[in-house]
Amino acid sequence: QARARLPAPQVQTRKSHSASAKPILQLTGLSKAFNGKTVLRDINLSVQPGEVISIIGPSGSGKTTLIRMVNGLETMDQGSVELLGQEFIRAGQRENALPYRAQITRLGMVFQGFNLFPHKTVLENLMLAPRLHNLDSREDLHQRSLAMLDKVGMLEHATKYPHQLSGGQQQRVAIARTLVMKPAVVLFDEPTSALDPERVSEVLQVIEKLAEEGITMLIVTHEMKFAFAISDRVVFMEQGRIEIDASPAEIRQMRDHRIFRFIDDMAT
Ligand code: ADP
User: Fold this and answer.
1) Is residue 33 lining ligand 1, measured as CB closer than 6 Å?
2) Is residue 59 lining ligand 1, measured as CB closer than 6 Å?
3) 117 and 125 Cβ atoms separated by less than 8 Å
4) Which residue among 48, 50, 132, 242 sits deepest, i.e. has the most Cβ atoms within 10 Å of its Cβ?
5) pTM passes above 0.80
């Protein structure tokens, strides 16, 4: 009798999640036209927790529009985005809709142009948004901000203002500022394209470190070597469509002429 009440062993009752883990971010049927010109066509993309996905493709293929749409900076004509298994944003939804407001702090964004507040110090830049959203006690937040500056190698610059820093340093601060919010996913829109060439690698190294730590990231980039080295999947876009969505190894095997022509063009 006692034995009959024992719970069944977990291995028999629990399904394996490895093959069908729940996506942390799900884009479904996203489409967009500007002034009658279609720039995104039926984009579907599923991002698993911990995945690093690079979005590459020719200029004008819709990469930036797509990533801005995911965090509500651009409206969509059709489709929807789910974040952490919940509705986040959908076509026709108002910007102040409840699901969006409830979840927007879980989505980090790093821009081409850093977008730091010029009249705030580095440390103030990190603490501003979390304070607004009342995420933590001031002391916890202060400690976490310093830890994030340390992570990106900017701790010694905590009291400086953005104009006292190089572009690469400003971008590292912008990355730390995003991480302080403890985002579930971080979106990067060409994070190194506004930098002097000699400043690119310091930012890529920080992103690589985050990839190793298992932070989920969606990265629009023109840095091909970097994209193929750190990504779990590379998404190749052309004329508003996802043409290829595969691992770097699979893409090398495929030898698809479109992607190879594109990478050749980038290299010359
Ligand atoms: P990518 O990031 O791949 O270079 P974009 O997403 O920036 O591509 O642009 C895709 C297309 O959408 C381009 O043809 C661009 O000119 C157009 N586009 C982007 N934003 C706007 C806008 N606000 N108004 C009109 N057209 C736009």
Assistant:
1) no
2) yes
3) yes
4) 242
5) yes
Q: How far is the CA of 206 from the centre of ligand 1 (A)?
A: 28
Q: Which residues in 99-215 belong to E strands, given as ranges?
A: 107-110, 185-189
Tokens 């985005």 appear where? 81
Residue spans of alpha helices (H) in 72-192: 98-103, 122-132, 138-151, 167-180
Among 31, 39, 67, which is best to mutate for testing ligand 1, by the most ligand atoms less than 8 A from CB?
A: 39
Question: CB of 130 closer than 6 A to ligand 1?
Answer: no
Spatial contact of 166 and 172, defined as CB atoms under 8 Å apart: no
CA 79 from chain center: how many Å? Answer: 19
Beta bridge partners of 109: 187
Answer whether 145 contacts ligand 1 (Cβ < 6 A): no
Q: How high is the ipTM of this complex? A: 0.97
Q: How far is CA 37 from the centre of its chain?
A: 26
| Beta carbon of 65 within 6 Å of any ligand 1 atom | yes
Q: What is the pLDDT of residues 21-76, one digit of tens each?
A: 789 999 999 999 999 999 999 999 999 999 999 999 999 999 999 999 999 999 99
Q: How confident is the model at residue 6 (pLDDT cuts 50, 70, 90)?
A: very low
Separation of CA 265 and ligand 1 centre (Å): 20
Residue 14 has pLDDT above 60, yes or no: no
